[in-house]
Design a protein that fits this description.
13 helices; 3-stranded antiparallel sheet; Arc Repressor Mutant, subunit A; alpha+beta
């Protein structure tokens, strides 16, 4: 009979595999959520750090053009493998654009096709579309907004970044699945991918992540309810303390202890991303407070959950002051007293320091 301790250990060992190459880590993860805040490094780099041998901040952006990944939207914006992206496109038939916007979009696509790869500044200089109100209520160049929409539709791809800014080129996707059976197969594969990433999932979180696939496949958003029902029948399940938990049917929960190690995790790392699951497994509510007013913060601007074996025992705030890395710690109850903890904590601080070398030379957001 499974216990919460089993699930807690599984949540760690299932996701934090042995460090490997960047390509293999990306294949294993399938999706890495991106975030532009760099404190001390971007979320995608912090997520890859414990999973990739000798990883350095910025490696993903530097090596992007050599990797089989794309920037795109899954359940959030991030980096996805090309086989995963192929399940989601083409994103057609779910919205209609006004005539004027369609005309501008065709002109932009023709411009990009002619140039090969374009920086948003080039497009804006050529078309001068003006400004629009962005998602956050601020003002953005209408051209940048249009490029983002064309990227989301799959008509453009990110070729590379220049000082953090996306440079676009034309992208053409295949026709997509033919028929209802093939379409259901694609949707089920997307569900299986998200479960693989965040397993084990309590029932409420399973519903939540399947619902977020509406951003990945807006053209099939009305079919996600049926996909959730199929998933509940297909996935492995255990009921613990009145809650149903789900994980991939081909994955065994083994009675293996988590490694004796300390890890600083990104706020969007798969181990801690689901705040509902986090509180069920570790008994306290971690929050990402970058957008919380300073007087109301408990953990800090960009607190990294501090994992010790299979327990998240606190958090760490890492900063670079006058070229030197500083780490400040907070604990849920008290700092573990074992000598091994201090040794492993010091080792993780050194790993973080090595990861951040040269971070001041990285391009801006």
């Amino acid at each position: 009979m499974r216990t919460l301790d089993d699930l807690r250990c599984f949540a760690v060992t299932h996701s934090l595999f042995e460090p490997t190459t960047l390509e293999r880590a990306l294949d294993a993860l399938a999706f890495v959520q991106a975030d532009p805040i760099r404190a001390p490094a971007r979320a995608q780099d912090l997520t890859l750090r414990p999973r990739v041998e000798s990883y350095r901040a910025g490696d993903l952006e530097r090596l992007y053009s050599t990797l089989s990944v794309e920037e795109d939207v899954f359940i959030n914006y991030g980096f996805i493998t090309r086989p995963l992206q192929a399940l989601m496109h083409p994103r057609t038939g779910w919205s209609r654009w006004p005539t004027a916007r369609s005309r501008r979009a065709k002109a932009v696509l023709a411009f990009v096709l002619e140039r090969g790869a374009v920086h948003p500044r080039e497009v804006e200089a050529h078309f001068s579309h003006g400004t629009v109100t962005n998602y956050w209520g601020g003002s953005s160049h209408a051209t940048t907004h249009l490029l983002d929409l064309l990227h989301y539709q799959g008509k453009l791809r990110v070729a590379r970044r220049e000082r953090g800014i996306r440079v676009y080129e034309i992208r053409e996707h295949g026709p997509g699945p033919a028929g209802a059976i093939a379409r259901r197969g694609c949707i089920d594969a997307l569900v299986d991918t998200v479960v693989q990433m965040y397993a084990p999932l309590p029932a409420a979180s399973l519903s939540f992540v399947v619902g977020r696939l509406r951003y990945a496949v807006p053209q099939w958003r009305n079919e996600l309810g049926a996909a959730l029902s199929r998933a509940r029948l297909r996935l492995a399940r255990a009921r613990i303390d009145g809650i149903d938990w789900y994980w991939p049917p081909d994955v065994s929960i083994l009675d293996e202890p988590a490694p004796t190690a300390v890890r600083f995790l990104a706020p969007f790392d798969p181990v801690v991303w689901d705040r509902r699951r986090f509180e069920l497994l570790w008994g306290w509510p971690y929050r990402f407070e970058a957008y919380t007013p300073k007087p109301k913060r408990r953990f800090g601007y960009y607190a990294l959950p501090l994992l010790w074996r299979d327990r998240v025992v606190g958090w760490c705030n890492v900063s670079i002051v006058r070229g030197e890395m500083r780490a400040e710690f907070g604990y849920v109850r008290s700092r573990p007293r074992e000598r091994t903890f201090k040794i492993e904590l010091d080792a993780e601080v050194e790993r973080m320091r090595a990861f951040l070398r040269g971070v001041n030379d990285l391009p801006g957001t």
